[in-house]
Amino acid sequence: MTERLYYTDSYRTRFSAHTVEWLTWEGYPAVLLDRTAFYPASGGQPADRGTLGGVAVLDVVAREKDGAIVHVLSGVDPLGFGKPKGSEIEGVLDWPRRFDHMQQHTGQHILSAAFERLLDADTVGFHLGAEASTVDINVGQLDRATIEPVEELANRVIWENHAVNVRFFDQDELAALSLRRPPAVEGPVRIVEIANFDVNACGGTHVARTGEIGLLKIVRLEHRGDETRVEFLCGNRALRDYRARSEMTDCLSSRLTVGYWELNQAVERLQEEGKQLRRRLRRARERLLKAEAAELVEAAVARGPYRVVRQVRERSSDSPEGVAEELRGLAQELMRRPGVVALLAGVGERTHLCFACAEGLNLDVASLLRETCAALGGKGGGRPHLAQGSAPPTDPARLEAMLSDLSVNV
Predict the structure, then answer these.
(1) Has residue 278 been placed in a domain?
(2) Angle between helices 95-119 and 235-256 (to 10 degrees)
(3) Whose CA is closest to 92, among 57, 138, 62, 117?
(4) For position 45, which CATH number holds?
């Protein structure tokens, strides 16, 4: 077993140790030491980073078979890989990362205890991520109004600057403790006590006093059946988040020429104006389609009982719905005209096709469209009187020729 220095001193950033074993771990050189201040990933908390003898530590893993801590190293043949056991080596932790994890993990203890006190809700999962941390609470459909008192209690405990005490207890001593969750291990148990607020078994790293957490902010709720995932930020993470949100509100306030407290009303006004503009645009597009359809029918080529309209659009559509929907709208307008057959195409990032004919005509445009799409390396289909498809980008001249041939043979 490796002596775990972080158990008794989470603030230790430098230490010296002796090598116990050199090995390879998942293709990387690694070393076991007789003692370490590096925390291995466990209990929802990520592993520490830093250096050993100036070589970067990529990962820290607790080996299952014997509890030894494996330090995974970067580089090839670092530190004289494979040299005799017992060599002395100096370790240096990445302190900003360690302290961030201490803030988040202690904050999680406080938040979980606050949920238990106010809502009689248990924490059934914890994850300390690179950007945010989460706790899974065994209550479904938690909402903002319900969690606000929990957040306020957690921050009050932080600002009261309670002492955080860590010590090991034998199994027969645990019965006297008011543990939030009974431990599932045998032998001595490491207990983290937030004075006058919470007692819990934990092997992670924590701050010495709650005031070092600074601030705890719940930023998101995710409903997951009978549980709610609560995303939160502590310390510098909460400061960065507040800074980013402040910059965003300042930017929006400036662009909309309102105070930040008026942003909600300003956005509502913009949304309503947008709805009105979209309605007006839709009506204008409908009128434009009718006018365009009339012009196309006027110029249509007579083919026996049919009046054939063909068009290849070589521009990107300015329609909010895109090229395919624009062609469909025009086709639907044309098929209302007696005897009209419409062969429409649009060329852009893809080739879009839409064929249509007036009701009552004995013509299957879906069959024509499938044949055309197949010739272009695409697919399509629809009803006998209206069909759509697409294909890879096509030369407009080739497309014009294909539609011209079709118009002759319908």
Answers:
(1) no
(2) 80
(3) 57
(4) 2.40.30.130
